Amino acid sequence: MSGWDEGAVYYSDQAHSWHDGNHPGDPDATASNHTIQQKFKEFIRNFSKNGLFPYRQNLLDNPKFLLVRFEDLDEFAPELSPKLESSPADFLPLFESAAAQVLGSLKTKVTGDTGELEDQVAGDVQILLTSDKDPVSMRSLGAQNISKLVKIAGITIAASRTKAKATYVTLVCKNCKKGKQIPCRPGLGGAVVPRSCDHIPQAGEEPCPIDPWLVVPDQSQYVDQQTLKLQENPEDVPTGELPRNLLLSVDRHLVQTVVPGSRLTVTGIFSIFQASNAASNKGAVAVRQPYIRVVGMEDTNEAKSGGPSAFTPEEIEEFKKFAAEPDAYKNICSKIAPSIFGHDDVKKAVACLLFGGSRKNLPDGVKLRGDINVLLLGDPSTAKSQFLKFVEKTAPIAVYTSGKGSSAAGLTASVIRDTSTREFYLEGGAMVLADGGVVCIDEFDKMRPEDRVAIHEAMEQQTISIAKAGITTVLNSRTSVLAAANPPSGRYDDLKTAQDNIDLQTTILSRFDLIFIVKDIRMYSQDKIIASHVIKVHASADATASENRVSKEENWLKRYLHYCRTECHPRLSESAATLLQNNYVKIRQDMRQQTNETGEASAVPITVRQLEAIVRLSEALAKMKLSHVATEEHVQEAIRLFTVATMDAARSGIHQQISLTPEMANEIKQAETQIKRRIGIGNHISERRLIDDLSRMGMNESIVRRALVIMHQRDEVEYKRERRVIYRKA
């Protein structure tokens, strides 16, 4: 795609013509064009809905552009819409001149030079088209669509600088100084400059040479133009394929209305242009690059695609009926990852994450996030990644990434230099592309610390600030984060403190609303149930009937999620707010007491962010039932979830002040002496081997382990890779 935002003038013949598809001198063509223009004028003037004239009024309110619904045009003049659809480049200029004439006649008349009242001269009016049709796939666009109207959806990944595009170029002949004005084709098309001057030389006058024209830039007419790169939505890309890009050309009032990362539905004319680096493929004269000349654009961010009209009245009725059931919350949680056994609280947390709280804009311009972030930390083989994969499939917008394979620029945004123009432009990363949805980050603990710091701002302020290569901008990343991580030693170790097990900085931990410690508990009865569940899942995997039912349920859940997020924005009731306030103060008091008893701060901080987390959870629980008020019942469930998740994580592991009997303390002291003797300062030994050696000397294994934990807390011994113990004198 080199040269995609090149600002050159292209001398290429294109399928669409400036002269409305006919020769200017053809009287039949002029007559038919005049008739069509009259019909367009009638449509703008006379189309009425519920006793109002929307287009006439909109034109007066905003004389620069007019947004026209295709369905309205089809209803008023059924013969016009097929023409506009099949050859938009011919009929759009007629529509725009009709709109300009109607605007001139609607304005109050002014006194002319002769003293008589005349219509005001209206400026250009840009016609923007929109329709309720479903967008087509980018991959299905081909030669049959050239010069036709198409509608596609995708994510903007790059936007060029604004350039001035000539609509009329003024030329002057070098020889006879005669001036001439020629029109430029819209979009990325250039002007066709005549080879010879049409001046007839007088007797004795030198004739004009071939190619005599010079362009006079100051006297030409210009409009603003910008090029965008549109990429397929991640959910539309077939498995194993790379997402496709398509070039968009926007002009006049659509310029600088879009930032990278925005989800768009675009209506435009599928056109072709000659790439600027055509020198590299001189043989391929007839090969042209496709692009879309945009004539209508809708921002579909924040799951607003189509708005409320996207749901049928039957669907809305069904959703309201479901929300009114007393066990709606339980039913939703049962639909979350049904192939995973147990983990009920994690499923409830994932449900809250999918529904999300309410985003708030304060009067002073501060924005409070409504998205919920969840961290799953624990043993391998506890279905953490399966939860992430389920959320990726179910959330309306989702991006899945792995910690080790993600860089800071890949998660936030990168500045890329275009190969042909040497100009820098922005490309959004995973957090920007998932704006209004969920980012799933697996192997969160394997990320490099400097990359993890890059998502701090995105997780709390929900923006990404860029100041690179002369580009200073702020991108939106209103996303929830669902992360999965393992403890540093691979498994969760109950003999270690919470700090050692949760090897993440408190700055990132405080940004997670819920932190779950997922342990693989060895219990005979539970193991038997899990084994039977897993075998059943494997045995019934090929049953097509149940598969259809599952996909139907998933689709229903997706639609319900979309509806709740669009329609419902709950707030706390007064009694719920009081209950929450009292509970938060009590939690802080308990944590302070624990810190005083153990002599060390908690690994998971309990701050005001955690109070906001409980507010968001309460709102998400209310949203599940389509309730506009979060009640005490919702707050109690949110506090329960917070207690079994984050509070348990904060209290997990053993603490330094272990209640020891004098005999035990003596045995531990002896074990410490033996460990120091056995290792020697600066040497290292495998933990397993050390325990075996001391056990042969008659020492209890649990006493040796406890002694090692205490020495590790005093920084006398250090654990290296593969559980090797190094003794360094404190």
Automatic annotation (TrEMBL):
One of its GO terms (cellular component) is MCM complex. It catalyses: ATP + H2O = ADP + phosphate + H(+). Keywords: ATP-binding, Cell cycle, DNA replication, DNA-binding, Helicase, Hydrolase, Nucleotide-binding, Nucleus. Residues 328-534 form the MCM C-terminal AAA(+) ATPase domain. It holds the Pfam family MCM_lid. It is an enzyme of class 3 (hydrolase). One of its GO terms (biological process) is double-strand break repair via break-induced replication. GO terms for molecular function: 3'-5' DNA helicase activity; ATP binding; ATP hydrolysis activity; DNA replication origin binding; single-stranded DNA binding; single-stranded DNA helicase activity. Its EC number is 3.6.4.12. It is found in: Nucleus. SUPFAM superfamilies: Nucleic acid-binding proteins, P-loop containing nucleoside triphosphate hydrolases. InterPro entries: MCM, MCM5, MCM5_C, MCM_CS, MCM_dom, MCM_lid, MCM_N, MCM_OB. Belongs to the MCM family. Probable component of the MCM2-7 complex (MCM complex) that may function as a DNA helicase and which is essential to undergo a single round of replication initiation and elongation per cell cycle in eukaryotic cells. Component of the MCM2-7 complex. This is DNA replication licensing factor MCM5.
